[in-house]
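Page 42, continued from yesterday. The earlier attempt failed because a stray header line got pasted into the input along with the sequence. Redoing it now with the clean sequence only.
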Amino acid sequence: MEKTRVQVLTLVLLGLLKGGWSFQVTLSKDPVEVGDDVVFEVRSPDKPETGSWQFRNEQVVFWIGTKLVVGLKYNDRIDVNYETGSLKLMSVKLSDSGDYFVHLQKAGEPPFSLTGNATLHIIDSVTKVTVNSPSPYPILNNTFSLTCNVSGNADSRSWLKDGQPLSAGDRITFSKDNSAVSFNPVLVSDNGTYQCIANSYFRNGTSTGYSLVVNCKLNLVCVADGPEQVSIIGPDASRIGSTAVFTCSARSQPVCEYTWFINGKLVSKGSPYKIHPVNSSNDGSYTCTAWNSLTERNSSAVKMHHVLDSASSWSRHAVAMVIGTLVSAAVLV
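This time it went through. Structure tokens are written below.
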């Protein structure tokens, strides 16, 4: 172990005595945020008599003893440690990113001539995030988009709707860098508050909420609600050969679209459903589904309908209904 140390020290001394030696400069931090300070730390074997720092072939600073010559771009922005040759660069800018070179010399004992370098990385952090749209009004069934604007450097962006992560879908797509979200087409169900989150190495930023309200026409906000309270009006039973009419209704804005199913099979569309003549296949469970295209919601109601094949069957059904009504009344009493 002791032999190894002697070999290393001998190698260092030989390098110094020959008049040149390279070393690595250490940065106090890297990367550095715009506006912060950074120190290029140098450890020389002794106090240098002269030294210089260069950046992109431009003189940052040159000194002899304690007399400094500072480059015009670096007035009031640098400080030199004469004991070591370390350089402090203050209030860094994006343009300060790059390779820095130092040269230190001493003519006395022991003499040395040292050169070193370091690469500085500057990052402009996120300072402000805003969301806007190139279109003043989102018009129903048209294309609409939102843009995330960031002051500073954002490594990534993401979107929120009403405080929850927004995902891509058949209608909703993101640009390659997530700086924009497009709706094709935009629907009332897209109404909500949208925010953009911009992430960077040092800090993140979140925009204020952008309220998206879809218009049916220019300057006319779509009023949409429902469907609710779906109901079916029609006979509980019908005789073969007769006519049966069923009507479906719901509370909805705008008016709903209605679809009819018998025993799970699609049979008709529209609020009224007429059967003539009634036959045995019309017996069973009737379902009416109300659909609101603006809210993109649906709701259903179910009614049982029995088909009777004779007058006697009809009479028995009527008697059963009367008895059921009387029993219910008796229970209530």
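Notes: Residues 311-332 form the longest helix (22 residues).
Reminder to self: strip header lines before submitting.
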